[in-house]
Design brief:
Layout (H helix, E strand, L loop, with lengths): L2 H9 L1 H13 L5 H14 L2 H12 L18 H13 L5
Helix pairs in contact: 1-3, 2-3, 2-5
Length: 94
Amino acid sequence: MTYQSQADMQASMSLRQRCVAAAAQEGSLSPDAWVAENIWQIVSHDSGWADAWDYAINTATLDNNPDTGARPGVINDQMILTVVQALMAAPPGA
């Protein structure tokens, strides 16, 4: 997991919006604020995210959507949901 991958993922508005959707589905009353507060923990929670992100960047072709964060084949909805659920269940400060 590289710091650059984490930085790129946290900057992806598409990936953030997908995380917001998951947080809303899980009952957050302020999903935008929750994701904004937790984005660094979200993108660094599972090294599989960075591995998938790096692979997508390194193997990109003209046929791929250039918005990596919008591509469910890179980080799928289940990956997002798993991390959001884990972080929402964790006690504050954990």
